[in-house]
Amino acid sequence: MPLKYKYLVQQMTSLDSALSFHKYSRKQECVQFSEVCDSVRASFGRDMNVNIFRQILTIVPEFYTHLWINNKLTINTNQDLRIIEVTQKREEVIKQRLLAICIECFRNHC
What we know:
By secondary structure, the protein is mainly α. It has helices at about 5-25, 35-45, 50-60, 85-110; strands at about 30, 65-70, 70-75. The chain has one domain: Arc Repressor Mutant, subunit A (Orthogonal Bundle), CATH 1.10.10.
């Protein structure tokens, strides 16, 4: 898998960790995306932005719900990210989909 895809998987797992923290520790149902970005940056030293979030949504749109409230992006998920099996399954799903994209690109260019 290309390095940029591995990076995207890492970004998604960081996003899930930060979202879980805000959702369950702070008891917020919908979390402002800017708060999640700040948490990802502080906890993992990674930049998270709307463009990366869009890339993740392109691959796994069912993982997150998002909407704009008062000109602020809010995000949520309907899965319990505190359960390790759930987060492992999510990581496996995005990896499989990215690998399928790699295989399709390879077939189209060979």
